[in-house]
Amino acid sequence: MKRTFLTSLILFVLCGLSIAQTDPKAKGILAAVSKKYASYPVIKADFTYTIENPKSKMKHSESGTLYTQSKANKYKIITPSQELMSDGKTQWTYLKQDNEVNVSDVDNSANSLNPARVFTIYEKGYKYIALPDIKQSGKVFHVIDLTPTTEGNNFFKIRLTIDKATSQIAKTMVFDKNGNRYSYVIKSLTPAKVSPSIFAFQTSQYPGVEVVDLR
User: Fold this and answer.
1) Three-state SS across 159-205?
2) Predicted TM-score of the model (pTM)
């Protein structure tokens, strides 16, 4: 149960009421963000994600590193407890403590939150509106709320906090219907050059690993 919860958390974050169909200010901000990320062949991001529920006073945080090649739908997430990777067709979840890897097909449905699209999630399937800018630590940030246009989602709102000076997403928050809040804070983000092999699980690099094929 704990392992499934953690995997779902990464996929979910990695990741409101309908207020407006198209907000011109928000559209302009998001267009600048898209242009920025389109110039990166592969993105490397160091992050901290947190899940919390104010009512139950539950809170859990973990740090990690994400590599994503959004155009090819590829990603790799590394945390202290597991590694999650996909070559665009297959997904591998490696559980370090158990030396076990679960293999499954990638979910490309409209309601899925794919880590490969964590920085471009707003481009399809969402309405958006700009909230007032905020200032933190001497920096100005845009704040944009996204609401899904498709049914069947477990969440009702995603809030993006975007650095005005760099047009980079600094924080993503997901609000689900059970009162949980998932935050994904970007500590650093840079373009990266990596071998394509990092997006697929290499059994030879994990001696004795148990492979559980869920396809």
Assistant:
1) EEEEECCCCEEEEEEEEECCCCEEEEEEEEEEECCCCHHHHCCCHHH
2) 0.75
Half-sphere exposure of 58 (CA within 13 A, CB side): 10
Q: Name which of 14, 93, 9, 95 is nearest 51 in CA terms.
A: 9
pLDDT digits (tens, 9 = 90+) for 167-212: 988 998 888 888 888 888 999 988 898 998 999 999 999 999 999 9
Closest listed residue to residue 10, CA positions, set 124, 110, 86: 86
Residue 139 in tokens: 């920096």
Question: Element (H or E) spanning 29, and its range?
Answer: helix 24-38
Q: Which residue has the tokens 């704990």?
A: 2
Q: Which two tokens stand for residue 23?
A: 């907000």
What amino acid occupies position 139?
K
- How many CA atoms, within 13 angstroms, populate the side-chain half-sphere of residue 172? 24
Each residue of 129-140: pLDDT tens digit? 999 999 999 999
Alpha-carbon distance of 22 to 28, in angstroms, equals 10
